[in-house]
DNA sequence: CCTTAATTTGAACAGTCGTTCAATCTAAAA
DNA sequence: TTTTAGATTGAACGACTGTTCAAATTAAGG
């Protein structure tokens, strides 16, 4: 941290930018698929179609690369969620279901929209959220937006303790991630069922959060 | 599978049993901490205080060892849950809150009871549930009991589709695992809050499952 | 006790790991 | 065009990976 990088003297070429993007995309898929330890720089390089040395050149150390990958989409997702929240507030007073919808829907629609990279990103977030090793990374990438939604919910339920709102948020996020990356479990437990069910997920989270907020207010 | 093991001609010594237990316990902690790929046989051997060769002798290949570790506590936990369910049924007609309580409480109380191995087991289950690579292992270890609870819930809500019940089960399990192994996230998002909150978790799951079951009945 | 199955040791095997770097090639800036 | 920062190659580094096995040790069964 706080290391001065030597200032660039030339703009990166189009080829360089393209290579960098291919490496980051490949790293995202491999990290999501196999976790931090299970992912190998060589697998990432091979998937990106480059030499191993290039991964270090564009992504730094393995840990820096992981950090880069996680942070990359966090900003974009945050923006979508905050925008949804502001749009909803403009049209009507916010209620709990709407707030949770603004948090959950943007990501799940991206993940279910056929973009495998957003599905992979969900698995990545699950890894980061589950492992205390990434505590600082989680705080840096997710806390600001999470706190924003927590504050929005807390304003609706002034009697609820802060721990209760935070617990609801964590439970809701875990259900959302399970919805995306454990869909195969749902299918395995109920052969031949429908699949998607975004509204059902939001209904689950809304009812759960509402229940714990009103019972300790 | 279906390989005939050479029949034992002697009972294992007390020391052998003790060594085997130390290796399995060490493997449980290391697998939970670092995942399948991140765990090394040498780390496990070192934690157990034995030579690397002994791990293969008592646990087989790395994959067989992982399988062994996951399956070991699954049976015990299943028994606790089914017992709780039968005991509850004997004293009163089952309702949704009671069924979910019987599923969630046994594990969370073990994990919060100070036994670090049960916390580790939760992380292990999270790994298995998240990764399609362990689909067969998950089916073998968890499906029977999960199906039992799903059937019990479905009987209470005859109008609900099977996919809805399965989704509720998966969401509830994910919230339960998050409760145990993402407690640090709750703490990070709400400094100075209480901590435990098992009843709050069960209230969350009950309300969530009830909501999705009654809305598509 | 003795026999010998079972356990434990210690070391080696062939690969893979993340990282580094001189040499080479590409293309931005002057 | 020339200069040369930056991108890319290809190979090497030591450390670590899971697995195997002959030899030594332990202890159950007779």
TrEMBL record, chains A, B:
User: Which organism was this protein described from?
Assistant: Ruegeria aquimaris
Q: Which PROSITE patterns match?
A: HTH_TETR_2
- Record key words, sorted: DNA-binding, Transcription, Transcription regulation
Residues annotated as coiled-coil are none
Entry keyword annotation includes Cytoplasm: no
Domain HTH tetR-type positions: 17-77
Q: Does the keyword Transcription apply?
A: yes
Tell me the DNA-binding residue spans. 40-59
Per its UniProt record, what Gene3D superfamilies does this chain match?
Tetracycline Repressor, domain 2
The family database entries (Pfam families) matched by this protein are listed as: TetR_C_30, TetR_N
Task: From the Swiss-Prot or TrEMBL record, give the protein name.
Answer: TetR family transcriptional regulator
